[in-house]
Amino acid sequence: MQQEVIYAKFHQRLIARLIDLAIVSLPLSLAMLFSVVYLKSFALAVLFSFLEAAYKPLAEAIFGYTIGKRVRRLRVVRQGDFAPIDLNQSLLRFLPWATIFFASVFILHRHLNDPGMADVNSVEAYLLFSQQHVLADNLVIALINYLPLFSVIWIFSDPMQRALHDRVAGTVVLVNA
């Protein structure tokens, strides 16, 4: 007896992502922010950013899901045979977010090497500093931040609910897989 294939809808994937943000991204982002504002440590900031960035592709390559996807009973599989994805496919799926990671590292480096950073001694001061920094109005940085959104909107026009990053990687997200 063959099991029915149910493709994960946008709202199911969004809820899974929000769970991942709360459980994984928020604590690592706060640790990164602490290392920038109070320790002025580029190495620690990059480490926490890298851990956050590596979580999704590694979890999906090893298990087929992130914590959020597991809670929502979703799994990333190869399109066609529904077999587990490999690391290469997982990294291809991650491309929109990888560009944000590299842009963030660039911004962190620029911020921490700016003489004005010496006066930053609180999160509020850092947020103000960031808004006034020369990179705050950079069009390329702004466009990079929208790459995941651009990828995700493809879900609405695809019968298999694939985002652009799924199409590039040859993957689909299934329910109860």
Structure, explained:
By secondary structure, the protein is mainly alpha-helical. It has one domain (10-175). Helices cover 61% and strands 6% of the residues. It has helices at residues 10-37, 42-62, 67-71, 87-93, 95-112, 123-132, 139-145, 147-152, 164-169; strands spanning 74-78, 171-175. A two-stranded antiparallel sheet has the order 1-2. The two termini are 15 Å apart.
Q: List the total number of helices.
A: 9
Biggest β-sheet strands, sense, barrel: 2 strands, antiparallel
* Percent helix: 55-70%
Radius of gyration: 18 Å
| Termini Cα gap | 15 Å
Order of helices and strands: HHHEHHHHHHE
Looking at how many chains there are and whether they match, the oligomeric state comes to single chain
The beta-strand count equals: 2
User: In what range is the share of β-strand residues?
Assistant: 5-15%
The chain-level mean pLDDT equals 97
Shape: elongated
Structural class category = mainly alpha
Keywords: Cell membrane, Membrane, Transmembrane, Transmembrane helix
Subcellular location: Cell membrane
Transmembrane segments: 21-39, 45-68, 94-112, 139-157
Pfam families: RDD (PF06271)
